[in-house]
Amino acid sequence: NAGVTQTPKFRVLKTGQSMTLLCAQDMNHEYMYWYRQDPGMGLRLIHYSVGEGTTAKGEVPDGYNVSRLKKQNFLLGLESAAPSQTSVYFCASSYAGTSTDTQYFGPGTRLTVL
Amino acid sequence: AQKITQTQPGMFVQEKEAVTLDCTYDTSDPSYGLFWYKQPSSGEMIFLIYQGSYDQQNATEGRYSLNFQKARKSANLVISASQLGDSAMYFCAMREYNNNDMRFGAGTRLTVKP
Prior knowledge:
The complex is a heterodimer of chains A (114) and B (114).
Chain A: E1 4-7, E2 10-13, E3 19-25, E4 31-37, E5 43-49, E6 56-57, E7 65-67, E8 73-78, E9 87-94, E10 104-105, E11 109-113
Parallel strand pairs in A: 2-11
Antiparallel strand pairs in A: 1-3, 3-8, 4-5, 4-9, 5-6, 7-8, 9-10, 9-11
Chain B: E1 3-5, E2 10-14, E3 19-21, E4 24-26, E5 32-39, E6 46-52, E7 60-61, E8 64-69, E9 74-79, E10 88-96, E11 103-104, E12 108-113
Parallel strand pairs in B: 2-12
Antiparallel strand pairs in B: 1-4, 3-9, 5-6, 5-10, 7-8, 8-9, 10-11, 10-12
């Protein structure tokens, strides 16, 4: 069982370039999330989705867009990358969105913006 | 607004001994969930244990237990019989009932000494 997978694992961009991170889950979860992790800090929520075709903003959404065209996939886009977006990005999924629901994480994508 | 505080940036423990990692939280919502995750040097986020705000008993999962003191708003993780493989970053997180934004603490780096 693959769980949550992320592609790519590593990426280096130049300022102003664009890219898309792909998250896929095979657990039939309704909810999916994108977080970023910066040194010395915990994870912060960028965007999330409560189901296919829906997205919503999290704590730090600026500079990112997302799409959830299929239930199993959640895409994170950077239209014009900035050095401040250098971070490790984690995708997660959960069966539902209640406070009792455990989120399961992908392995992360390390992004460097030069 | 929900807030998670982990006051111990780093902790050391001798192999086979028990260790407690502190976590305090702040919320006005009576219904919430508390989570602990482990992040080894390889980078993935591994779910360890969950405690619901209405749970009467402290959660336990193998060598992990959660010392939940609701009145003090603390949810400390206890690891018994530490192993070298327990060396990692540990994150406390909380999610309120009506809030999709799970907030994380800054983490504690645990080092197990042989």
